[in-house]
Amino acid sequence: MEIKELVPADFKSDQMVRWCAGCGDHAILNSIQKALPRLGIKHEDFAFISGIGCSSRFPYYMNTYGFHGIHGRAAAIASGVKTANPELSVWVITGDGDSLAIGGNHFIHLIRRNVDLNLILFNNQIYGLTKGQYSPTSEHGTVTKTSPLGTVERPFKPGALAIGARGTFFARTIDVMTKLSTEIYVKAAQHKGTSIVEVLQNCVIFSDKVWADISDRKYRDDRVIVLENDQPMIYGKDRDKGLMLKDGGLLPVQIEKNGVTEDDLLVHDSHNPFAGLHVALANMEYPDFPVALGVIRDCQETASYETAVANQIKEAQSQAKSKSIKEIMLSGSTWEVK
Amino acid sequence: MSKQAKVIEIDEVAIRFSGDSGDGMQLTGTLFSDTSALFGNDVSTFPDYPAEIRAPQGTVGGVSGFQVHFGHTQVNTPGDYCDVLVAMNPAALKANFRWIKPDGIIIFDRDAFDEKNIKKAGYDKDPLKEEPTDGIQLIGAPISSMTRETLKDIGLDQKSILRSKNMFALGIVSWLYDRPLEHAIDFFQRKFAKKPVLIDANTQVLQAGYNYAGNIQALTVSFKVRPADIEPGIYRNINGNTAAAWGIIAAAEKAGLPVFLGSYPITPATGILEEMAARKDLGVVSFQAEDEIAGICTAIGGSFAGSLAATSTSGPGLALKSEAIGLAVITELPLVIVNVQRGGPSTGLPTKTEQSDLMQALYGRNGESPVVVIASSTPSNCFDYAFEASRIALERMTPVILLTDGFLANGTEPWKIPDMDDFPDINPPIAKEGSKDWLPYNRDEHTLAREWAKAGIPGLEHRVGGLEKMAGSGNVSYVPENHEYMVGIREEKVNRVEDMIPEQEIIGDPDADLLIIGWGGTYGHLVTAVSEIQREGYKVALAHFNYIKPLPKNTGEILGQFKKHLVCELNLGQFAHYLRMNYPKYNYLQYNKVQGLPFIVQELKDFILKNLEEK
After folding, report:
1. B90: which of A27, B121, B231, B512 fits an S-S bond (Cβ 3.0–4.6 Å)?
2. pLDDT class for B3, splitting at 50, 70, 90?
3. Please, what is the end-to-end C-alpha distance for chain A in angstroms?
């Protein structure tokens, strides 16, 4: 059957978008709506599943099948949707509180199972919907309503957590970088397995400018590196900086200084099953390092969960002696009373 | 040679096998009950095992028991007290002595009654003198040593050899009750197909036990229990967990839907997940989730995607699922929640039975969150009520909680395999592609069910979620009047299920003064007590409920026919409270028991008779 050519407008629902003016979520919504028509997937086969939080209102603004779930459980609901109907393109929309605090367990087990769905993690380092309490990604010392003297907790690093949970796909983008974001969403959807995309998202009310050090156009290019597969790791407004491997760690260098040439730089290989370098890249933080954006890991090392389940069932059915519950009931030890 | 044993015919017998939890008593009991069922007796069983998989050997805490009740007449319970107690060690005697009839037989492994084990069990010197064994026939069989002797040349190590000693006990009991050995031997051949030496070992020990019993002078009689008068048909033994799993699968077949089970292992409900996982041959998708919450949430996802979705659990798991049940209530998706009740609160008594989750099932959620609650009442009718739970969930677009309990889940009974043509069709209100002006929260005016647009149908893209929905459109709505309307409509939708369930029946004398009221897993004990009391010449009736929310339409009418109402349940009176709330004009007497154990028929009879005699 011919698939109707879709456009971003096909994915906009009739509901008024109620996020604050200036919220990073608007840009994420647009970037995703731009990515979907490029996937060659039928309109009715998209399902957006969310938990609770500002980001989780997302499904209401999408003219697709949508499920606004309960706090932390979107990954579990989505796993059920995908496993029950592997034909669907399933997207989880979640935040740092939803996925890394109350839903932490589902987050890691989703990744471990490698269910083929795309989880978009809006990370703004704050609880926005409850009006400004620290989250599991808030930097140590962050002052909020529930940490008036600064947090004493260490934050999760979503990339390390995801890859540590045996993630097969991890990418990072910034809400305002819409073009890059759209490319990443397309790649996430194409990856067969759990795709985690961390979006550094600005909450204009409760954690405004929390990513400003790296997201501001004025100096962004010098503080982030957009990783591209098979390309040397070069960044900077003038493309004069790069990353090298030194003493078992990453080292930012100036190209053409101290005898460093482009040939000395690392070449990005997102498909490498070895996760060590991917974790190191994901963990880079400003100011010691550029922050890595783009697809950091995209590794097809195992079958996706729902495929494995479907294959097992197919195999079991092909060898089955009993084809109906009636036949199961009559199998094994039975006896007849006359 | 021994003299020819005398054969005595009896109507019914209860045998309790007990030993260390590593002694294989569950298997021994199961083999014996299967053999009896194959022989044509009516059978009921009750496993009684500790939560610890291997508690310290020889201690009372580690004793595992399995009671088999079989008879020439109808058998509704595993029997209060046993005619024969098999005790593989002193601890087993200590744990189970209270269950032996005053004229019963105790068969014990006299090799295991050494000083060490006697002390470990908490006896002083001689257990059989320390317990009041007058009138009881004691048979001290050298079970361990004869097992060793039988297998001395088989080429197994001592530990493996002793693992067969339960079969020696089974052999003794098989002789005593004239049971053939073929079924057990068939079982060994299937179970140990890859290790033939174990087929030989178990078979030899079983036969050695059988021969031993025939040879010793102590057993001068053997007993014969003739086959029961049973309705013709093909039968099998079934426990409540398997029956519940099959009921859901059968419903899915009727409805033409795939099955999705999202669950987390929990005693005593795990058997449902295990059976569903084994039914990949029928296309069942079973998802072993990371926790109870994910169990139900994956099921809700499966329902959204168009499967007949279910989750299975026990009390603590139901507590964890409560928020998600509310989500299924407000999204109005079909969902079956099987709660196999156990002793609570908290971890409570994981392996013991209780009926104390009724209030949790009815009300244990935030907000006005009505669900349909039904309960099965025998191991085999877990099939029927799982089918019913699925039918109601699918046709009325609502979560349904099916309450079973540890007693039903693990208990077995012979089951006449039903003809699926006798079960009603299931017609869920599935939205059709191309429906004009379709809205997710439009309702059928009679059932009030909304239509189910499974994700993937072109043109029916819509959003559901936990925020209050505007009637019709399903958009998020904070309109106060809409919320009140939706709360009311969800309640009414559940209440209208009364149109699709049967009326409540009365067992016994409709013109009696006293109505006994029960629900769920206590049926066997209550019906036995009532019929025995009737046989003794009294008038009494029983209303045993399977449909709890909504109650059957004629409940008020039935209650009105009797002067006295006695509610018997394994909790502090939860169903009695529920009836008081719904039908306040009656004075409900209560008989409650909360010991983690089923009722005893005799205790029920004593209490009921006392009430009958009080005017």
Report:
1. B121
2. very low
3. 56
- Pairs of residues, one from chain A and one from chain B, whose beta carbons lie less than 8 Å apart: 209
pLDDT of B2 reads 41
CATH code 3.40.920.10 region(s) in chain B: 6-224
Task: Indicate the pTM of the whole model.
Answer: 0.94
A294 - beta bridge partners? A172, A227
Chain A residues within 8 A of B297 when measuring between CB atoms: 69-70, 73, 76-77, 80, 106
Determine contact: A38 vs chain B, CB below 8 A: no
Q: Which of A49, A57, A77, A315 to mutate to test the interface with B (most CBs of B within 10 A)?
A: A77
**Structure ipTM:** 0.97
Q: Region B264-272: what's the mean pLDDT?
A: 97
Q: Does residue B380 sit at the A interface (CB-CB below 8 Å)?
A: no
Taking contacts as CB-CB distances below 8 angstroms, the residues of chain A near B287 are: 79-80, 83, 309
User: Please, are residues B241 and B269 in contact by the beta-carbon 8 Å criterion?
Assistant: yes
CATH superfamily assigned to domain B236-422: Thiamin diphosphate (ThDP)-binding fold, Pyr/PP domains (3.40.50.970)
Annotate B249-281 with DSSP letters as a single string: HHHHHHHT--EEEEE---TTTHHHHHHHHHGGG
Residue B99 CA from chain centroid, whole number? 21
Among A333, A336, A338, the strongest candidate for a mutation testing the B interface, having the largest count of B CBs within 10 A, is A333
- pLDDT at position B444, please? 97
pLDDT bucket at B451, cuts 50 / 70 / 90: very high
Q: Which architecture does CATH list for B6-224?
A: 3-Layer(aba) Sandwich (3.40)
Counting Cα atoms < 13 Å in the Cβ hemisphere of A176 gives: 14
Residues of B in contact with A49 (CB under 8 A): 301
CA quadruple A250, A255, A261, A263: dihedral sign: positive
Using CA atoms, how far apart are residues B339 and B343, in angstroms rounded to an integer?
12
- Write down all domains in chain A, each with its CATH number in brackets: 8-230+269-305 (3.40.50.970), 232-267 (no CATH)
> Is A318 in the B-facing interface, judged by CB distances under 8 Å?
no
| Burial A187-199, CB ≥16 within 10 A → b, else e | bbbebebbbbbbb
Q: Which residue has the tokens 């003198």?
A: B129
Mean pLDDT across B526-545:
96
At B230 the three-state DSSP class reads: coil
Q: Which tens digits make up the pLDDT trace of A180-193?
A: 999 999 999 999 99
When pLDDT is averaged across residues A72-95 and rounded to a whole number, the result is 98
pLDDT at B1: 36
Asked whether the beta carbons of residue A79 and residue B298 sit closer than 8 angstroms, the reply is yes
Does domain B507-613 fall into CATH 3.40.50.920? yes
Q: Using CA coordinates, name the residue in chain B closest to A103.
A: B294
Supply the mean pLDDT for chain B.
94
Q: Which of B185, B230, B259, B304 to mutate to test the interface with A (most CBs of A within 10 A)?
A: B304
Three-class secondary structure of residue B88 per DSSP: coil
Please report the pLDDT score of residue A3 as a whole number.
Answer: 57
In chain B, which residue's Cα lies nearest the Cα of A323?
B282
| C-alpha separations of A74 from A35, A103, A261, B204 in Å | 21, 8, 47, 57
Gyration radius of chain B's alpha carbons: 26
The CA-CA-CA angle for residues B300, B547, B529, to 5°, reads 135
Determine contact, residues B570/B520, Cβ cutoff 8 Å.
Answer: no
Among B328, B313, B334, B327, CA closest to B257? B334
**pLDDT score for B57:** 87
Alpha carbon A15 to chain centroid distance? 25
